[in-house]
Amino acid sequence: MGKFGYFGKLVVNEGQRDALVQILIEAAEFAQSVEDCELYAVNISESEPDCVWVTEIWKNEEAHAASLGLEWTKLLIERAKPFIRKMDGIRMQVLGGKGV
Questions:
Q1: pLDDT for res 100
Q2: DSSP readout, the chain?
Q3: In this structure, what is the dihedral angle of CA atoms 77, 79, 80, 81, given to the nearest 10 degrees?
Q4: Is the dihedral of CA 77, 83, 88, 94 positive or negative?
Q5: How far apart are CA 97 and CA 2, in angstroms?
Q6: Contact predicate 1/95, CB 8 Å
Q7: Around Cβ 19, how many Cβ atoms within 10 Å?
Q8: What are residue 93's phi and psi, to 5 degrees?
Q9: pLDDT tens, 38-96?
Q10: CB-CB neighbours of 45 under 10 Å
């Protein structure tokens, strides 16, 4: 079985993208210390000024689920909530590729 991927699209309240990006960059820094997190990338697109995309790759789905129970994850989610208007995500099975 492949690794677990999550591709999230966060639609922010107007003008709040940069504030959310800063919180997500903190999350990415914390994720470096989580052994089973293989990728946590924060992305923006100039064509969607009110959106932030997060790309995650984990050893497996259980590792991702466990990360949501970590205290720092809970704190960062609470800080991010006021900026987020809508959230969509795609759960994927990562089969391979460069860096995976």
A1: 83
A2: --EEEEEEEEEESTT-HHHHHHHHHHHHHHHTT-TTEEEEEEE--TT-TTEEEEEEEESSHHHHHHHTTSHHHHHHHHHHGGGEEEEEEEEEEE---TT-
A3: 80
A4: negative
A5: 11
A6: no
A7: 15
A8: -100, 115
A9: 999 999 999 999 999 999 999 999 999 999 999 999 999 999 999 999 999 999 999 99
A10: 10
Among 6, 1, 19, which Cα is nearest to 81's? Answer: 19
Burial class (CB in 10 A: 0-12, 13-18, 19+), 57: buried
pTM: 0.91
Backbone angles phi, psi at 3, to 5 degrees: -75, 165
